[in-house]
Specification:
The complex is a heterodimer. By secondary structure, chain A is mostly helical. Chain A has eight helices and no strands. Chain A starts with a helix and ends with a helix. Classes of the chains: A mainly alpha, B alpha/beta. The complex binds adenosine-5'-diphosphate and magnesium ion (MG).
């Protein structure tokens, strides 16, 4: 295949994918306002997503906090600034790594789960069966997942932030003999509420991206079980890419708006 | 006297997938009280046609009216009210595999009525008996044979007593005994639950049993349409070939 053909074919696929995702987003927006609401389904999804995710998110967070502390402590020791390990860990954790790592790790898991569930309903015509019965499938299958994710991801992010700081403290205190009180005190002195909130704010956007990609890929699955496998893999990659790209633009936006 | 408005009306409907033109100008009228059998070989576009009529897919051009309402560009949310008045039996049954037989059949009732649990139970049991599956309430779809799945799918499509039912290959893939049971069931419906239907099939004998109108789909168009008698005496080559079994699979 020549480069030109390659670009044309993949460009076309990317355009169709983004267009479809955009249309689905519009449909979901319209349906958020429509009655009835299926709160029971939202709680079911919260349960499923939350349980699937807590351990992964927190394990990643504590190790990230520890790595951040290890790395920054080595560097900062050169300036005799080891007491400031806390704020350095906190700024990276709260503004970036807490929300982004949670979104990529948990998001990949949650979104591929959604793609698998909806995709297998799609290939066995269960989605069409719902439609034929007169059920609003967007309202029944997508909106509850979106609402659940909008609840779960900010909460997990806050938890990951906290656990990350705790991990940083472990290293600072046990390895570098920083006083625990000094560690936290410096964090509270140097880190603002705004740092914390921009991170949590990002997680709402990530939650929406994750659910919509998961749902869209599930609903557009074609080609039986083989297609299902492809769709699930694609979801993991697209969620990671989507989160990283969105993170850049959100960071730009938040700096512009709040700085 | 004013003529009653057709239940389904198609005018010049075209549908293609990636340059492959499946339907090339289909027109038809289905009046209340009529059962139309759409026949044709495998892959001629019978399922595609049925999905267009039920509003599950959209035509490229042409007009589709369901209960007098144009649906070819109707938004999904506005289709829902119309779909409540129709039933669709999928070729592969399309049962909800996480729900029991009872809950599958109860699903439309829970969605569209505010009936009590007792009323729902009575209605579900009535329709499960109608399709010859009493006492299967708690089975899961995975525990059913192909014929049983199809019959549960029929019960689910009929449970709200729709004004028109679309059957996609209700007898395909069934052994002869099961095929006859399902065929008799659909024939019986005409005098009871639902008198208007479109039945897609490549089974000529079955079509003769249930239909009072027949249409033969060939190369994206209706090669012939009319009463079973008219179809059997048709001298259109494609129809004769189909009746002789030449266009059938296997
Ligand atoms: N979603 C789709 N995408 C691409 N091609 C399709 C799709 N649905 C149906 N087709 C094609 O349309 C033709 C008719 O299919 P179908 O209506 O299922 O045939 P049948 O008469 O056996 O029910 C087939 O060639 C099939 O490959
Ligand atoms: Mg078919």
């Amino acid at each position: 295949m020549t480069t030109a053909t390659y670009l044309r074919v993949h460009g076309r696929q990317a355009a169709i994918w983004s267009g479809g995702l955009g249309l689905l987003t519009g449909q979901v927006m319209r349906n958020l306002a429509l009655p009835p609401s299926y709160w029971r389904l939202v709680m079911q999804e919260v349960d499923a997503m939350g349980v699937r995710s807590v351990v992964v998110a927190l394990t990643a967070a504590i190790f990230t906090g520890m790595v951040l502390a290890l790395q920054s402590a080595v560097n900062m020791a050169r300036f005799g600034a080891e007491n400031y390990v806390g704020p350095v860990v906190a700024l990276s954790m709260l503004r970036e790594l807490g929300p982004v790592l949670t979104a990529i790790l948990v998001g990949g898991k949650v979104a591929s789960g959604i793609t698998a569930e909806l995709g297998s309903m799609k290939v066995t015509e269960q989605i069409d069966a719902l439609r034929a019965i007169g059920v609003n499938y967007v309202k029944k299958l997508i909106v509850p997942r979106l609402l659940a994710a909008l609840l779960i991801f900010p909460l997990l992010t806050i938890l990951a932030d906290f656990i990350g700081l705790l991990g940083g403290m472990l290293i600072a205190v046990l390895e570098r003999h920083v006083d625990a009180y000094v560690y936290w005190n410096n964090i509270f002195y140097w880190v603002t509420v705004r740092d914390f909130l921009t991170g949590v704010g990002k997680s709402f956007f990530f939650a929406a991206i994750i659910t919509l990609i998961g749902c869209y890929n599930g609903l557009s699955t074609e080609g039986g079980t083989e297609g299902l496998g492809r769709a699930t893999t694609a979801t993991v990659v697209q969620v990671a890419m989507g989160v990283i790209l969105a993170d850049f633009f959100l960071t730009k936006l938040f700096l512009f708006l709040f700085w | 006297m004013m003529k009653e408005q057709p239940v389904v009306e198609l005018r010049g409907v075209w549908k293609a997938f990636d340059h492959h033109e499946v339907l090339r100008g289909i027109s038809l009228v289905l009046s209340k009280g009529t059962t139309l059998a759409v026949m044709g070989g495998s892959g001629v576009g019978k399922t595609v046609l049925l999905r267009l009529i039920a509003g599950l897919a959209r035509p490229d051009t042409g007009e589709i009216r369901l209960f007098g309402r144009n649906i070819e560009r109707l938004r999904e949310e506005h289709m829902l009210a119309l779909r409540r008045r129709t039933g669709f039996v999928f070729q592969g049954a399309a049962l909800f595999d996480s729900l029991s037989v009872f809950e599958n059949v109860a699903y439309p009732l829970r969605e569209h009525t505010s009936w009590s649990e007792g009323e729902i139970t009575d209605r579900v049991h009535r329709f499960l008996s109608l399709v010859g599956l009493p006492g299967t309430d708690s089975l899961l779809p995975a525990e059913l044979s192909g014929g049983m799945k199809k019959r549960v799918g029929i019960a689910r499509a009929l449970v709200l007593e729709p004004e028109v039912v679309f059957f996609d290959e209700p007898t395909a893939g069934l052994d002869p005994t099961n095929a006859r049971v399902v065929g008799e069931l659909i024939a019986e419906l005409r005098s009871g639950v639902c008198d208007t239907a479109i039945v897609v099939t490549h089974d000529i004998e079955f079509a003769g049993m249930v239909a009072d109108q027949m249409a033969i789909l060939h190369e994206g168009q209706f090669a012939a349409m009319g009463t079973p008698g008219e179809i059997h005496s048709s001298n259109v080559p494609a129809v004769q070939a189909f009746l002789a079994g030449e266009l059938l699979e296997n």
